[in-house]
Amino acid sequence: MAKTKIKRRMKSGDFMLVLITMALVIFGIIMVFSASYYTSINKSGNPYAYLIRDVIWAGLGLCAMMVTASIDYRIYGKFAKPVMIVSIVLLVLLFTPLGIDRNNAVRWLGVGGITIMPGELAKPAAIVFTAWFLSRDPRLIKSLTKGVIPLFVLCGIYGGLIVLQPNLSTAITVCIIIIGIMFAAGLNYIYLGGLVGAGSLGIFVLLITNPDSHWMKRFTSFMDPFADPLNTGYQVVQSLLALGSGGLFGLGLGKSIQKNLYLPEPQNDFIFAIIGEELGYIGCLILITAYIILVWRGIHIAINAADLFGSLLASGISIMIGIQVILNIAVVTSSMPPTGVTLPFVSYGGNALLIFMASVGILLNISRHTAAVE
């Protein structure tokens, strides 16, 4: 009987992953232009302001994706600790004069006209560090003291610093990413239940101890947005009206009513509502299908990765994309309280688009290094 052996095989990359990503980015540019048209005129007098910036960021994102696709993903493991430390330092710097206050939240760092969102950078940093930490020894995830607790503490550090901005949605996303990678590495179901329970308890305590906070107002407005349609429930109500108006086939591209200064910042977190209004249920279904294929390709890459680090890294990126899609659509459809999470590759936002496209480049590189059975 011929011996079976495993060796590393170089591939050109996952073509389907590239195709879906570029389709989403191009679709996002079109929808950002459509959704932001009147908002852009109202704010700057130029209907193409958001379009131009989004195209620039997409171009930068494409460059970032090409670069990360060409870099051996194993290199990231060597910088896992410094990347994690830098991401935490950036979060701390938000509470210095470098932090920029917008809409009663300090989520941006500004230096010389350049702004970055440390909360967005925390996501890939958490993915790289967690994947590296657990890939050093597969037995770590079975150890409560050496594997589970250290990563639980990391969740607390990231979550605490991001909540203080305040930005509960990003804090939840980062924690879910870390726990998701732990689950992919083989986390015991009892430990998983404990982590999820502790996180849920923390959110509950945060809400009840801050009854006048904007988080509690968002939660109560989610329960019945039409109870206060002109204040706390306004954005969700406008979103539901947009989705309802779209029907099965939509009003047609560019023909949204709610983007005419009814739905605030329609090109950002609530762009899915404009997609539903203009392209209808069918358009939304096609978009969701594209995301499912994208996440499926990421999972496929994770399963076939040549080593544990690559597998966990691909898992983390897939989780990051998938959880943001779920959270964004859930908010827009009033299935959960508003969170402020962007729709990957589609919503307007330079930092997020750049990070998502660079992350896809990492997935492409991992897909080139596969385990071939001979």
Cα-atom Rg, whole angstroms? 21 Å
Overall geometric form: globular
Number of contiguous helices: 13
Please outline the major beta sheet: 3 strands, antiparallel
Mean pLDDT: 85
| Total count of strands | 5
Strand order of the largest sheet: 2-3-4
Distance, first to last CA = 12 Å
Number of domains: 1
Oligomer: single chain
Note poorly predicted spans.
1-10
Strand content: 5-15%
Please give the share of residues in helix: 55-70%
Task: Outline the structure in words.
The chain is mainly alpha-helical. The protein is built from 13 helices and 5 strands. The chain has helices at 15-44, 49-70, 75-78, 80-93, 118-135, 144-163, 168-184, 189-208, 214-223, 234-246, 271-303, 308-332, 350-368; strands at 6-10, 99-102, 105-111, 114-116, 369-373. A hairpin with a 2-residue loop joins strand 3 and strand 4. The chain is globular.
Core attributes:
374 residues; disordered N terminus; mainly alpha; 3-stranded antiparallel sheet; two-stranded antiparallel ribbon; 13 helices
